[in-house]
Amino acid sequence: MDELQESEERLELALAGADLGTWDWDVQSGEVRMNARWAEMLGYAPDELEPHHNTWKMLVHPDDWSEVTEVLNAHLENRTDSYVEHRLRHKSGRWIWVLSRGKVISRDATGRPLRACGTNLDITDRKEHEERDRIMQKRMEQAQRLESLGVLAGGIAHDFNNLLMGILGHADLILEDLSPISPVSADVAAIKQTTLRAADLCAQMLAYAGKGSIASSSTSPCQ
Fold first, then answer.
1. Higher pLDDT residue, 150 or 208?
2. Which pTM value belongs to this model?
């Protein structure tokens, strides 16, 4: 085995061990040479994909295209390194996430890119795990907000309850001193009934806050 062949075999073994798909892009012609792993991670046999830049373009998720082209163009113009995470359409129709790293390795005298090479790594599992963590974090934050609302509702209901008890107490005292035929007795009784209905709402707020049970409007203010 000559030295070049041995070196190529070591490279292939390293790429296989790292589970990397490789691409070699002739920027001017659009031709792209891809290894078997590049196609396999998308569910294809190597001979099922046309070895051209347009093949990759058609596989990119529409929502990712703007960011991908921005990163790619910036690198082709020699302004940044090329590094981007994006989705590609699998043969089954689902989307997989890949981490694409690449670099222009040849330019002409004017700086125009001629050839670029790089790798793709399937990071779908990591992205899905991150999405699950994001959803869980969002649920936890929502639960914390609901808990805070419960505390706030309980505090308001408690203070409101104290006010209602005072109103009811004074209404009862007034009714005791009034003659049943007094022209204002009906008005005071209406005040008492309205206060009892407000107490019912107060009880519901306390129940929501987990600090009480709903009281009947015909009995007493919330406890």
1. 150
2. 0.62
